[in-house]
Structures are given as C-alpha cells and as structure tokens.
Amino acid sequence: VDETYIKVGGQWKYLYRAVDKAGNTIDFLLRAHRDKAAARQYFEKSITQNGEPETVTIDKSGANLAALEAINAERETPIKIRQTKYLNNIIEQDHRAIKRRTRPMLGFKNFRCARILLGGIEVAHMIAKGQMKDNGVRQTSAEQFYSLAA
Fold first, then answer.
1. Burial of 111 (0-12, 13-18, 19+ CB in 10 A)
2. Which InterPro entries does the record associate with it (predicted)?
C-alpha cells in the first residue's frame, strides 16, 4: 500500500493504491488529506471489497501505520504490518504508469472529475497488465475495454 500525489484544482491530493505480490492492482482511492482518517477509510474499503490480507507492506508513513494499528486493535487476528523501504518497490513502479498518463494533463480541474478519470486510468492500466482477462476467452485489450462498457 502506498500513496502518490495528484494535482487537483491547483492543490496536491493523495491517490492511495494497493497492489499484490504479482503487481495486480487491488484497490485505489483518491483523498484530499493524508491523515489517519483517510488511511483508515482506504484500508476499511479495501478490506471490505477484497478480503483481509495476511500482510500489508507500507512505507514509513505515520498515517498508514496509525490507521492499521487502529484496525488491528478491533480485530481478533491482526494484520501483519511490514515497514521496509525496498519491499514497496512493486507499487512504486506501478505508480509510474499512472503518473505517465496524468502528467501531460497538468492536473485536474476538480475533485469529482479527477476521481472519475483516475478510475478509468486505473481500469485501463489493469487491462494493459492483463489483470481483467477471462479464463479461456481470448480478447484484445480493446475488446476487454468494450466488454466493460456493455
């Protein structure tokens, strides 16, 4: 789990993202603040939609650590937290693809549009990584994208 900066309305906002060991995108959320409440909301949303992880690797962000510790305090089986600099390289490399698409845009005009467009960028990135493939059905990236719209 990591966050990256996205410019919205001339101010920096935070895009929380999570990937698994294989580099597949698990979840993402755009937030205005980088604090315990924002991190906790992201983790709770991600756990609800994707299930409880065994281990979460985070950077040295105090907000992420505080949010995970608060979540662990309410659980019977705590989530293992790893804070190692070099274990977060998978997600840092994954941020590059998102930044490559958003940098030429020079930011977004408002938060709502940023949230919608980043959702589309994330889905397109997931298709490009081969994450949305149906087992047994061969489709091109364009066909996968069109099947989502149908």
1. middle
2. DDE_dom, IS_Transposase, RNaseH-like_sf, Transpos_IS6
